[in-house]
């Protein structure tokens, strides 16, 4: 698949049920939808230029089979992350009006995106593809995902089939991740596959074990 469309689709899916999408929905209840989407667009463009740049820089220095294998592991982990879902902290749910709405959206979204699943997904995608199509595709995919969620949330009063959407997006990540692992690591020895499987089991425990211990 072309790097632009691959980035657009994968980041669109990664954003479904993500923390930054919840931030976008919350901000859209406080401010004009166009202002929120415009702030998200420029904030995402700024964050993902670094994400795509990091991935592209690293990717040029790694063998193609290892890039595909590690990317596959990463996407399975992102599938776990998507399946678990995110939540907002109390401080992120309030509407603050100390600065102009555009800059508030830009700043809030920028900070929420740092270290987030979509940022890490962009780095992973850029490791095996060209910088520019990944940067633009990931930005558009994220804005489309947030825009659809905002419009649907306002129309349906936030009564979205969140679990079904998360399950579908997670399934895509699992399939894409497994295929990428096989594509890159078909010739790898068993001990590398064993280490990868153990890593995924640990990741699964991290996401779902911690969730079970949380207070409702």
Secondary-structure topology with pairs:
Layout (H helix, E strand, L loop, with lengths): L2 H13 L3 H10 L4 H27 L4 H21 L5 H4 L7 H13 L3 H10 L4 H26 L5 H24 L4 H23 L4
Our measurement of the CA-to-CA distance between the termini, rounded to an integer number of angstroms, reads 41 Å
Oligomer: single chain
Strand content: under 5%
Q: Note the main sheet.
A: none
Could you say how many structural domains there are in total?
1
The number of helical runs is 10
Rounded to an integer in angstroms, the radius of gyration calculated over CA atoms is 18 Å
Task: Give the topology string: H per helix, E per strand.
Answer: HHHHHHHHHH
- Report the uncertain regions: 211-216
Overall pLDDT metric: 82
Share in helix: over 70%
Total count of strands: 0
Outline: globular
Task: Summarize the structure in words.
The protein has 216 residues and is mainly alpha-helical. The protein has one domain (3-212). 79% of the residues lie in helices and 0% in strands. It has 10 helices and no strands. The chain has helices spanning 3-15, 19-28, 33-59, 64-84, 90-93, 101-113, 117-126, 131-156, 162-185, 190-212. Helix 4 packs antiparallel against helix 9. It is globular and about 55 Å long.
List keywords for this structure.
single chain; 216 residues; mainly alpha; 10 helices; globular; disordered C terminus
Give a short summary of the structure.
The chain is 79% helix and 0% strand.
């Amino acid at each position: 698949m072309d790097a632009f469309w691959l980035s657009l689709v994968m980041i669109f899916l990664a954003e479904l049920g993500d923390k930054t999408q919840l931030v976008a929905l919350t901000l859209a209840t406080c401010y004009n939808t166009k202002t929120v989407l415009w702030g998200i667009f420029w904030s995402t463009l700024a964050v993902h230029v670094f994400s795509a740049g990091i991935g592209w820089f690293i990717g040029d220095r790694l063998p193609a089979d290892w890039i595909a294998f590690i990317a596959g592991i990463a996407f399975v982990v992102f599938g776990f992350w998507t399946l678990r879902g995110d939540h907002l902290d109390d401080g992120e749910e309030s509407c603050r009006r100390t600065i102009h709405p555009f800059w508030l959206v830009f700043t809030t979204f920028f900070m929420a995106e740092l270290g987030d699943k979509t940022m890490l997904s962009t780095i992973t995608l850029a490791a095996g593809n060209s910088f520019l199509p990944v940067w633009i595709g990931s930005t558009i995919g994220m804005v489309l995902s947030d825009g659809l969620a905002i419009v649907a949330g306002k129309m349906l009063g936030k009564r979205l089939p969140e679990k079904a959407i998360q399950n579908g997006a997670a399934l895509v990540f699992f399939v894409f991740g497994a295929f990428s692992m096989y594509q890159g690591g078909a010739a790898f020895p068993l001990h590398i596959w064993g280490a990868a499987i153990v890593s995924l089991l640990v990741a699964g425990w991290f996401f779902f074990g911690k969730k079970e211990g949380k207070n409702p």
